[in-house]
Amino acid sequence: MTPGSFFFPRTKPVMTKHILIQLDSDTQPSSFDSVVAIDAGVDQLLRYSQVEVDGVVPLVHGAMFTRGGDDLRHTAIFIGGSNVARAEELLAACQGAFFGPVRVSLMLDANGCNTTAAAAVVAAGRHVPIRGAKAVVLGGTGPVGRRVAQLLASDGADVRLVSRSLERATQACGEIVHKVGEASIEPASVADGEQTVAELVRDAEIVIGCGAAGAELVDQDTILSIPKLKVAIDLNAVPPAGIGGIEVTDKAKNLGAGVAYGAIGVGGLKMKTHKAAIKSLFESNDRLLDAEEIYAIAKAIG
To answer: Which candidate among 31, 54, 157, 269 keeps its CA 20 to 30 Å from the CA of 299?
Structure first.
């Protein structure tokens, strides 16, 4: 170094951190969702609980107006919680807070509804082509059941959506047709006594149980008697099984004429899908990940 010269050490470029804002309507933000976000590589996680619709705008604007240009894609919002209907309201409020291209990416997976449904349908598709398959969704009016039925219908399955209430089943089918367009989907119920579960599933190639914990939707003898069954999936992780004869850890286990998956059996794909979806939020500032988009990610993983 010659007299009068100066030495300036090289500095590494500062990398913009990935920030995920977790909005949760419950008393405490979901620790499950938080752990998955961190494992997906989020640098900073901001967790908000008891979020109400009228409190969304300042949170979204705080995410939008602190970064600009390409840096805006490094901030994203995840909407969770146990109440899926409330989460959908929060999602709509987030979208309403945007200003044209000034926005951040959004993901909805309240109660694991989208990642669970996507993983279940992809698992079914390993054993039977979804297009044209006869599928029965038990507990089809719940948050996961609706999405399972929607994804099956959007891929061309012939879907029967079963609920304890024919009125709710009919409403759910109407909403699904409105979302996906032309679809082969019909409502059904066993509450009126006109049809038994055995009659509703007898021609099924795919049976997916999405009912509430602690309720058996169909017994083992009935499942074993379905002649064309290719795959049965029970998404209830709490005993008793929603579909008789399926254990929570079953993964492509032989069951009658087909194979069976339990909740943990599809859980590996669900977790991979959840992490991949979180990572994809930071690819741009305008991603919207709901059921169909998360399903596409699950299908890419396989």
So the answer is: 31
Preceding omega of 240 cis (within 30 degrees of 0):
yes
What's the token pair of residue 46?
A: 């901001």
Residue 93 has which token pair? 């409020």
Q: In this structure, what token pair is assigned to residue 188?
A: 């059904």
Q: What is the CA radius of gyration of the chain?
A: 22
Angle at 60 between CA 59 and CA 63, to 5 degrees: 95
Cβ atoms < 10 Å from Cβ of 50: 12
Convert the pLDDT of each residue in 248-294 to its tens digit: 999 999 998 899 999 999 999 999 999 999 999 999 999 999 999 99
* CB contact set of 31 (below 8 Å; sequence gap of 6+): none
Condensed to tens digits (0 to 9), the pLDDT of residues 95-105 reads: 999 999 999 99
Main-chain dihedrals φ then ψ at residue 223, nearest 5 degrees: -60, -45
Quote the crossing angle between the two packed helices 143-154 and 291-301, to the nearest 10°.
70
Q: Whole-angstrom Cα distance, residue 8 to residue 71?
A: 27
- The answer to whether the pTM exceeds 0.70 is yes
Neighbours of 182 (CB within 10 A): 8
User: Alpha helices, DSSP H only, in the chain?
Assistant: 31-39, 56-64, 84-96, 113-125, 143-154, 166-180, 197-201, 220-224, 267-280, 291-301
